[in-house]
Amino acid sequence: MILPETTLFPGMSLPLRIFEPRYRRMLADVLEGGRMFAVALRNPKHQGETPMSIGGLGLVSAAAQQPDGTSLLTLLGLARVEFLGSVRLKPYRVEAVRALASLPVDEPQVDVLARKVRALVRKRIKAGFDLGMPMPGDPAKAKQLQDMQVMANASFQQFGKHIAQIKSPEQLADLVASTLISDPLARQILLATPQIEERLKRLHQILLVTEFRAGES
């Protein structure tokens, strides 16, 4: 599937609604086979549906067909994959792929970078989750927004506790990237960086930039 703002990281879950006829056909074939398909971000520099060169391979962990023929499913990320070229385009796109494995790392340097990322995440969580919505003048709507803010902050705190329990720098980087980085092209950069040391460096830089912009606003 080629989507405009979506990236799938290893270990992350992606909810999808399948409604286009070609993807409904694809899902039927997938469920009869290995239950796997890839998700790619659409390349904004090209016209039409051209995928970025790196995407995520996922496993359909749950799927439910709806009365109207559409389906709701959860895709669990398994691996980064590089797209090597199309095998066919109809009735849905099929690409040749190869899995991207992590390369050997400088473990002390990775630990230092992971601590820096954790520190920025803790700072972000302490600041609270910004819904990005102005407070309405209507008291009832203002109360509703305040309740939403309380729930969002509570979920953010739970996310912080989950992050604190993660030991693997790989899992840390991918979870933070998929959860806290809103810009799809920035997420794509991180997805396309299989080497964990370089990925943590880029993630740290992106978090610093977004923190600076938040401070300016």
CATH architecture of the largest domain: Up-down Bundle
Number of helix segments? Answer: 6
- Total individual domains: 2
Rounded to the nearest angstrom, the distance between the terminal CA atoms is 36 Å
Largest sheet: 6 strands, mixed
Share of residues in strands? 15-25%
Helix content: 40-55%
Overview of this protein structure:
The protein has 217 residues and is an alpha+beta fold. Helix content is 47%, strand content 23%. Strands 1, 2, 3, 4, 5 and 6 form a six-stranded mixed β-sheet that branches. A hairpin with a 5-residue loop joins β4 (54-65) and β5 (71-88). α4 (169-180) runs parallel beside α6 (196-216). The radius of gyration is 19 Å and the shape is globular.
Task: Provide tags for this entry.
globular; Archaeosine Trna-guanine Transglycosylase, Chain: A, domain 4; 6 strands; 217 residues; Methane Monooxygenase Hydroxylase, Chain G, domain 1; alpha+beta; 2 domains; 6-stranded mixed β-sheet
How are the SSEs ordered, and which strands pair?
Layout: E1 2-3, E2 13-18, H1 21-32, E3 36-41, E4 54-65, E5 71-88, E6 94-99, H2 107-127, H3 139-165, H4 169-180, H5 184-191, H6 196-216
Parallel strand pairs: 1-3
Antiparallel strand pairs: 2-5, 3-4, 4-5, 5-6
